[in-house]
Structures are given as structure tokens and as C-alpha cells.
Amino acid sequence: MSGKKIMGEADLAIHGAPPAFSQPLHVGQPNIINRDKFLAGVARALDNRWLTNNGPLVQEFEQRVADKLGVKHCVAMCNGTIALEIAIRALGLTGEVIVPSWTFVATAHALYWQGITPIFADIDPVTHNLDPVAVRRMITPRTSGIIGVHLWGRAAPVGELQAIADEHGLKLMFDAAHAFGSSYRGQSIGQFGACEVFSFHATKSFNTMEGGAITTNDDDLAEAMRLMRNFGFKGYDNVIHPGTNGKMIEVCAAMGLANLDGFEDIVVANQATHAAYQQALEGIPGIKVLSYDLDERNSHHYMVVEVGSDCPVRRDDLIATLQAENILARRYFWPGCHRMQPYRDLFPHAELVLPQTKVVAEQVMVLPAGASITLQQIQAVCDVIRRRVSP
Ligand SMILES: Cc1ncc(COP(=O)(O)O)c(C=O)c1O
After folding, report:
1. What is the model's pTM?
2. DSSP secondary-structure letter at 376?
3. Average pLDDT of the residues in 3-26
4. Residue ranges lining ligand 1, Cβ < 6 Å
5. What is the location of CATH 3.40.640.10 in the chain?
6. Per CATH, domain 9-30+263-329+368-389 is 1.20.120.350
7. Mean pLDDT of 88-101
8. Which CATH architecture has domain 35-261?
9. Which of 15, 190, 297, 332 would you call most buried, defined as having the most Cβ atoms within 10 angstroms of its Cβ?
10. Is 130 helix (H, G, I), strand (E, B) or coil?
11. Bridging pattern class, strands 96-100 and 143-149
């Protein structure tokens, strides 16, 4: 558990009105599950004198992830963004690709960086995921594909998106950066579309410090992505394809192997955190906890709250109050990719077709969570919110 200290009565007496937390309480505190196993893995890499270039730890990691997700291939990468770029290239996407604006900007940048135009489609305000009706509306003769994002670990509408892709001859892939361990209709995320891309960044529920992976059941695609990940090398000094450096290093794979062992414990802890927040926030006017589908798996990693128009305090004022108390709540993805550069200049009127994205972006607040947060800390966070909203 965290060493973070909640101020007690003694502190109040000495300092007058100190912040609720003496140390900042962050969103996205890294989960460090099995330190000894990680260090043993690092020692193994050093003993092997094999630090990168598809080493034994990376190979073991890929096999374990593929087994866990029930997919044929897992191609480990240095991070999720490069993994997205490689997947986009391997699929041969060109022209325009439909994506949500309500996502981390890497989803859009991975396209734009390669001369492809991201076309932003609106979301379902309940799930925060792509709305299939909006996706259909954005298809043009230049559209080559769709990237669905499983936002907050909740599966995008996979079936509907696949039907649209099939109908229009489009490629479909998923940004599964948030969705390690999640499911769609009971089946593990990682198996859908042409391929799925994970991020194992330090802030994710499952992390390799920096890292990512592409999963696919397509042998040829996996082979192409392996080549692209390693400059196009097929064997020693034989380059047969253009490529980049997308390799995961052995130390990151050691972290992944250690964290895989304790992942389900993290999910259980996150579920308890979510339930505790839900209970402690109950009845505060205008504060709604984004719920997870109980019949699907989800790591419950993100503690997402919507501050509605019926809340007497504006979202940004509430965040300012929390931050003054050392509770570093965040807006997340605000104001939407379409209002970030270069997309803001490219599509100055995008908001007209993104009404739900606009509303959600103005309401979302993400609260500190993660495996190290305590029930006492959660209660303290919620007390600050309650006092501010209904004093
Ligand atoms: C939805 C989404 N896509 C892509 C990425 C990029 O992943 P990475 O930080 O591993 O490059 C992130 C994460 O940070 C993300 O949240």
C-alpha cells in the first residue's frame, strides 16, 4: 500500500488549513506488483548479455500474452504509439481513416504522422465509444479503414464496426491501449478486427514501464509487423522490407512477466476501489460515476466521473478544488483530438459533427485510483468533493 499520508487532526491544529493530502495523490500511479520477480528477470537479462533484439524474455512475454488473450500472435513493441504506426502500415491504410476524437491523441497522430488523415466520428455518450451511426456518416471514397478504441477498457461496438467495414470494404483495427484483460461478448479483447494494439505504458493497468504489443490471428500480418519492428531484417544482414525500430527491450519484458503474474489481483483491487468510490460519491448532485458492464471483463483501472450540467459546481472548478488539496484529478483527453493541433486547423468546424464528444469532454473528470490507493484515501477524496458540491 502507498506511503501517502492523510493529514490528521494534529496537522490541522498546527497548520490551520493544510491540504487534505500532504503528498500529491496522482491519477495513473504505476502498478508495481512483483518486485523480486522483476529484479530476477533483469538479472537474467544481464546474465544472458542479451538486452534487446527479440531476446528470450521478450519471446516468453509474447507467448504468455498470446495465451492469456487467446490469440495466435503477439508482437511486442517499444510502446503503443509505434505499435499503432506499425499496425497502420502493415494493414496498408491510406487516405482517410475514421477514428474517435474522444481518445488519447496518439490514435490520431499515428495516422497523421504517416500522411493519413484521421476523420473524427462522434461517440455514444453512455459508453464513450464510437457510435456506429456516426461512423457510417463519415465514410467517403477516400476512406480505407476504421480504428475503434476500447475507451476506458470498455469494448467498442466490435460487431457493428466489423459489419460496416465488411459492407464498405474497409480495414478494421482496434486501439486496445486501455483494454488489456477486457472482453467483448465474453471473448478477450486482442482477438478482434485485423489486429489490436495495446499500450503497456507505466500508467496502464498492466505495464512494462514503456511498451506495447499488436495481437492478431493473421499469420502474414504478424510476419509483416515483425519485419517492420526490426528495420525490415529477415535474418542476419538481409533487409527485405522498409521498417523502423519498434523493439521491446528485455528489461521491459521482465517487468511484463512479473506484472502478468499479479494482474488478476490488480483487477480485484481496482473493482474494490471502484465500488468504494461509487458508494462514497452516491447522492452528490450532478456527480455520476461511469459504470462498467458487469457481464464483461474490464480491469476497472480508470475512475471516471461525469460532472453534469446539474452539478452546482463546474467540472474545472471542482478539479481546482481537488488539486488545491493535493488530489491531482484530471480532465483527460480534453478538449478532444479535433481541437488539438494540427486537427484544429485542418477541421475548424469539426465540432458540428461531434456534439456528444463536446459534451463528454466538458464533463469528464478522472480521479486517482490504482492498486496503491487506500479506502481511507478514497473516502477523503470523496469528502472533498461532497463538501465542495453540497457544502
Ligand atoms: C487510447 C490510447 N492510445 C494510444 C496510446 C499510446 O500508447 P503509448 O503511451 O504506449 O505510446 C495511449 C496511451 O498512452 C492511449 O491511451
Report:
1. 0.95
2. H
3. 61
4. 79-81, 103-104, 106-107, 149, 175, 177-178, 199, 201, 212
5. 35-261
6. no
7. 98
8. 3-Layer(aba) Sandwich (3.40)
9. 190
10. strand
11. parallel
